[in-house]
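Running co-folding for NAP.
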Amino acid sequence: MSKKVRWGVLSTAQIAKNHVIPAMQAGAFTEIVAIASRDEDRAREAAVDLGIPRAYGSYEALLADPDIDAIYNPLPNHLHAPLTIKALEAGKHVLCEKPIALSAEEARQIQDAQEKSGLLLGEAFMVRFHPQWRRVREIIRGGRLGEVRAIQTIFSYFLTDPSNIRNQADIGGGGLYDIGCYAINTARFAFDAEPERVIGILDIDPQMGTDRLSSGLAAFPEGRQLAFTCATQLVPCQRVQILGTQGRIEIQIPFNAPADQEAAIIVDDGRDLSGSGREIIKIPAIDQYTLQGDAFSQAVLGEQPLEWGVADAVANMRVIDALFRSAKTGKWERP
Ligand SMILES: NC(=O)c1ccc[n+]([C@@H]2O[C@H](COP(=O)([O-])OP(=O)(O)OC[C@H]3O[C@@H](n4cnc5c(N)ncnc54)[C@H](OP(=O)(O)O)[C@@H]3O)[C@@H](O)[C@H]2O)c1
């Protein structure tokens, strides 16, 4: 295998064209060699724009290319499981966009395919590769916050275009799948634990049938709690607060930290409410998608282990499932 992993991209998704492909092309271990679309002209146009050597008019044709080592799957959510399984069966490693699937059962099917193939599978929660989240975890583990007991997360945007995949219920739209998954993922990351039970409430858009305002509570071991709200029709906002017995951390742009701006996290020891015990930690600008791509490529090359694989993806999906169940039953549910 070459020193760089040769990647193929399934579809001309906005996230791929605008962020992930350019970021991965800037990586040291990553080469984007092909892109596919349902429409061959669209694939060719994207390939020319992005300097990708090969273009395919179907996802299957790309998967059949023997020169491709790994697949990036940024399809709409309902196609994550089917195409990820096809890619694994075609002998390719897969980095699949979040959420990995529409249910834990589908995620388990991916796990079966992954185990059969012996290939690598990752869910593209790029935030875990951003140094700001690494720093947050170091601070938590270093004890500066005392006992960390609570996380509060808000993630919202305003989007009512019915043609956007996020507003189509039948293809996996809605806030919980799209952004609630980050609240769950980052709380599992920060607490380094799995929630024991969850309760959720959803407000469903009457036209589109998608959850537009969703909140959840998750009870982690030792009395720790996550409370989150995510919304697709609310003023855009992203914030995470992690609170311990002796301090708190506030992450200013926890999820879409811009690649060209310093990131900032605030650590406050709470000595007074006006913030005189605050330290603002600046983190140099960095592209979290480049870090994610290179980390996966290095795992493919055998140079470092994959930090989060299919088991983590299944665990995250179990929590999302339980929140959907809870919204129906009105009761606590176990992931
Ligand atoms: N990690 C992140 O930061 C991040 C950010 C945004 C989105 N995402 C994830 O990335 C995925 C794509 O999001 P996006 O906003 O980039 O979506 P998008 O622009 O709508 O792209 C989805 C692509 O899938 C293909 N497709 C196949 N069947 C389709 C169908 N029935 N309806 C619509 N498109 C279909 C289309 O490409 P062709 O026509 O070329 O085949 C389309 O361009 C989602 O899973 C989302 O959760 C992740």
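Result summary
The mean pLDDT is 97.
The chain has two domains: 5-125+291-309, 131-285.
Job closed.
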